[in-house]
């Protein structure tokens, strides 16, 4: 029977020595926060475009007040989330005294993101375009 040492000596060396290094949690958390911030910016731009479309349709459109309120609340939540993510990215996770605070901030950001998603589901459900707008455009377009 072969010993573990003999078995491990026959296995090829890992060509990437970085794979054996422990993960830097602070670097990982910062990258996660930056990625989440980019998604927050994309959603913010989308909501700003929706707000513009609702305002262009005017108060005669269905659910005008509801859409203005929902989009405004969503935009406000996204600003708060963005501020939280900047604070999270600036704190060092490797410092033990920051870990509890970072955990609380991360939990708050996660809850706010969930609430923002719920608001955006309702925004999408109420819609920002006029009924029949796409159908009328398709009837004119022969392609």
Automatic annotation (TrEMBL):
**Topology relative to the membrane:** Multi-pass membrane protein
Q: Which domain of life is it from?
A: Eukaryota
Q: Which InterPro entries match?
A: Ninjurin
Per the UniProt entry, what is one GO biological process? tissue regeneration
Could you list this entry's UniProt keywords, alphabetically sorted.
Cell adhesion, Membrane, Transmembrane, Transmembrane helix
Compartments, record wording? Membrane
Chain spans, region Disordered: 1-23
Q: Where is the composition biased (Low complexity)?
A: 10-23
Annotated membrane-spanning segments are 63-88, 108-128
User: What cellular component terms from Gene Ontology apply here?
Assistant: membrane
* Family recorded in the similarity comment: Belongs to the ninjurin family.
Output this protein's name. Ninjurin-2 isoform X2
In which organism is this protein found?
A: Heterocephalus glaber (Naked mole rat)
Q: Which gene codes for it?
A: Ninj2
């Amino acid at each position: 029977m072969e010993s573990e040492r003999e078995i491990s000596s026959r296995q090829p060396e890992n060509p990437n020595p970085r794979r054996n290094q422990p993960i830097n949690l602070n670097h990982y958390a910062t990258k996660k926060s930056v990625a989440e911030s980019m998604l927050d910016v994309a959603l913010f731009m989308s909501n700003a475009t929706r707000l513009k479309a609702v305002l262009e349709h005017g108060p005669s459109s269905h659910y005008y007040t509801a859409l203005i309120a929902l989009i405004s609340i969503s935009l406000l939540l996204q600003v708060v989330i963005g501020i939280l993510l900047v604070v999270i990215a600036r704190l060092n996770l490797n410092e033990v005294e920051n870990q509890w605070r970072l955990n609380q901030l991360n939990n708050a950001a996660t809850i706010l993101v969930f609430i923002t998603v719920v608001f955006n589901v309702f925004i999408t459900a109420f819609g920002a375009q006029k009924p029949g707008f796409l159908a009328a455009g398709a009837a004119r377009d022969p392609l």
